[in-house]
Amino acid sequence: MRRKASLILLALAVFFTALSPLLRWYAFPRLAKVPANQYQDMVLEAKNATLLDYGSMKAEKVSKVTVVQTLKGNVEASEKIERTAGRDVVVWDSLSYVQGPDGKMVSKLPERYIFDAHTQDPVHATGESVDGDPVTREGIEFKWPFRTEKRDYEYFDAQTRTSAPIHYKDTRTFRGVEVYYFEQTVPWTKVQFPKIMPVKGVTREYVARTGTTRWYTTVRRFWVEPVTGAPVYGEEIHKEELRGGTLLGDRDKVTAFAGHVKMREDYIRSTVDLVKSNRTLVLMMTSYLPWGFLLLGAALLALSLWLEARGRRPGDPAPTPAADPEPVSA
Question: Which of 11, 100, 122, 192 has the fewest Cβ atoms within 10 Å of its own Cβ atom?
């Protein structure tokens, strides 16, 4: 029985020891992915901001500017692209909607972001766009890869339609979560006017004919939880200007928007809670279970060897065989 039990334990030890690296290096890269039907919204605010009054064309101080960002997974579009791409694809239809303190629209910027569900690398397909204009993204946007590294990444900027490095700065603790802090500075760049302007009847083509141009700069900051690659907090020091042209009269430039845009407190709390939960799930596959299976395999191997050794240990002396009976004489 000991011999049989030790062989069973040895087989289990081999199984769990082999399962450990398979789970981490084979199963995890294939199972961990962004769901195609994900929906997420976020509210950010810039208090005491500067905003252009398009009626008077003068920059004014306002109490608050609100930015509502939504990300909605388009399952139908992702399935269509997957048939030709040959991999799991996520399509996010996003909208950044900016409104003034009176609730009126300042600007809105729709995007379609297509990326690999496992690696977050961009997937170039029909429909990839910013404000209806086709783009070809390089690098990441919105989310970092699972198991984010301490290095710079290429990050796509929707205003300029270009990618530039976003730099890893240091490791911090944010609301009890260890995060990597990234920062990107976009220098003053001429960008397009949005297709939908805040003044009814005014189009970007009309503004372009006046010779007035739109310029933009920002300092973008993210606090990223490295296991999931999800930002738990983000903010921007954002500035926009209109320059030149007849629209400004005799002025060279006017501030269209300037403010320190930060996540609203209630969304910070809900985001941190969600990331903590997802972090546990990822760690189960990358750390807890692989290490647990490896230790279990070692324990089973030790127990198997111990039983085998006990089975071979000398026991009680063997009984002396009975002597052959002497023949009985007649």
Answer: 11
For 171-204, b/e burial (b = at least 16 CB within 10 A) is eeeeeebebbbbebebeeeebbbbeebbeeeeee
- Provide the terminal-to-terminal Cα distance of the chain, rounded to the nearest Å: 50
Q: Tens digit of pLDDT for each residue in 68-124?
A: 999 999 999 999 999 988 899 999 999 999 999 988 999 999 999 999 999 999 999
Burial bucket for residue 139 (CB in 10 Å: 0-12, 13-18, 19+): middle
Residue 330's pLDDT is what?
Answer: 47
Taking the model in full, what pTM does it have?
0.85
Distance, CA of 275 to chain centre: 10
Decide: 62 and 53 in contact? Cβ < 8 Å: no
Q: For the stretch 236-273, what's the b/e string if a residue is b when 16 or more beta carbons lie within 10 angstroms of its beta carbon?
A: bbbbbbbbeeebbeeeeebbbbbbebbbeeebbeebbe
Distance CA 145, CA 153 (A): 10
Sequence-ordered strand ranges (E) for 175-229: 177-191, 213-225
pLDDT in tens, 156-211: 999 999 999 999 999 999 999 999 999 999 999 999 999 988 887 778 888 888 89
Q: Cβ(211)–Cβ(246) under 8 Å?
A: yes
Q: Which residues contact 43 (CB under 8 A, 6 or more apart)?
A: 66, 67, 68, 69, 263, 264, 266, 267
CA gap 254, 245 in Å, rounded: 11
Residue 16: how many other CB atoms lie within 10 Å: 19
